[in-house]
Amino acid sequence: MTNESQAFLRFHHVKKTYDRRSLVVRDFTLDVRRGEFVTLLGPSGSGKTTVLMMLAGFEHVTSGEISIDGESVTRTAPYERNIGMVFQNYALFPHMTVNENLAYPLKVRKLPKSEIRQRVAQYLKLVELEDFGDRHPGQLSGGQRQRVALARALIFEPALVLLDEPLCALDKKLREQMQFEITRLHKTLGCTMVYVTHDQAEALTMSDRIAVFNHGVVQQFATPDALYERPANAFVAGFIGENNLIRGTGIANDSDVVTVSLDNATTLRATPGDFRSGQGPCLVSVRPEKLAIATPLARPSPTDNVLSARFVTQHYVGDFIRYYFELADGTRLIVKTMNDAKAPSLAEGQLTDLFWSVHHCFAFHPQSTHAVQGETP
């Protein structure tokens, strides 16, 4: 977590309840640096959108403080916070042209007409819509409308821009296009952006850091690579990307390795996640691309974990192949390999050894959904 002197945006022990009985957001503390792109990521109902609405001023804070650039905005009206906002439904004025939509926030701020004309032209060029200024929103495609919404949120040069699932209505190709556009604009303008999504791939692609939510609690706040390669608990490991989870019992551990016993008396060795001490139920987490299939050309080393599994089926996905296996207790495992000459050919029902390094798997508590402090990249 950044220290207070570095924080441009600060949530300090923020809580939110609607019924005075259950908390939608629980003791939320987070620091965001100036110019950073931070994503609030989590499943529906996890509290991420509520946090964004409290930051925008559309929801009241039950307790705690929100500050921007050292000034508390907890009780400040939304229109006084000078925050740009992009919604998933664009929220453009349908009776106004693109030029008029962009000019509106500048007119409200009483900028001179000459400066308004200059900025509208500048931001139309920035979002590559120079020839669309006289059109109405209904005459634009979804991607074009979202670019207009972005330009309108940025044109009055706010220091902070909030984006609430702005790409969810777009198709896959257009979403990827707009991800690039938003990150390009962020780098060009240098403003601070807070982005809400439930799409893990989107968050990993666009963010400087990601706060992963569950049940109103931040499970981990870290860089995309740290979340993927070093998840803090079982929820983060399961929510971010594909993941295999093998149930067992922790029987021994030290600071570097946890030994886990499976029902068939096989033991695995894992890097400690949040299972660091004691004994008891345990989950071993390993990514599909970290698993390897034993073949004459690929054999495990003496220190690798090895499990015998029955091959079920495989899916061709173009650049890679996804293999499906089943352990004796019914646990399903997925292995991802590159689609090349080394990809093995297996018969349905064939028993095969799968192996992976102790450094590529983690030991977690099965019910780990507690809050975890973020890390500084």
Map the helices and strands:
Elements: E1 7-17, E2 23-33, E3 37-41, H1 48-56, E4 63-68, E5 71-72, E6 83-86, H2 98-108, H3 113-126, H4 142-154, E7 160-164, H5 172-189, E8 192-197, H6 200-206, E9 209-214, E10 217-222, H7 224-229, H8 234-239, E11 244-253, E12 258-261, E13 267-272, E14 280-286, E15 292-293, E16 305-316, E17 320-326, E18 332-338, E19 351-356, E20 361-364
Parallel strand pairs: 3-8, 3-9, 6-7, 7-8, 13-20
Antiparallel strand pairs: 1-2, 1-4, 4-5, 9-10, 11-12, 11-14, 12-13, 14-20, 15-19, 16-17, 16-19, 17-18
Helix pairs in contact: 2-3, 2-4, 4-5
Could you explain how this protein is built, in words?
The protein is α+β, with helices and mostly antiparallel strands and 377 residues long. The chain has eight helices and 20 strands. The chain has helices at 48-56, 98-108, 113-126, 142-154, 172-189, 200-206, 224-229, 234-239, and strands at 7-17, 23-33, 37-41, 63-68, 71-72, 83-86, 160-164, 192-197, 209-214, 217-222, 244-253, 258-261, 267-272, 280-286, 292-293, 305-316, 320-326, 332-338, 351-356, 361-364. The strands form four sheets. The protein has a six-stranded mixed β-sheet with strand order 6-7-8-3-9-10, sandwiched between helices. Strands 11-12-13-20-14 form a five-stranded mixed beta barrel. Strands 15-19-16-17-18 form a five-stranded antiparallel β-sheet, with no helix packed on it. α2 packs parallel to α4. The radius of gyration is 25 Å and the shape is globular. The N and C termini lie close together (9 Å). The model is unreliable at 373-377 (pLDDT under 50).
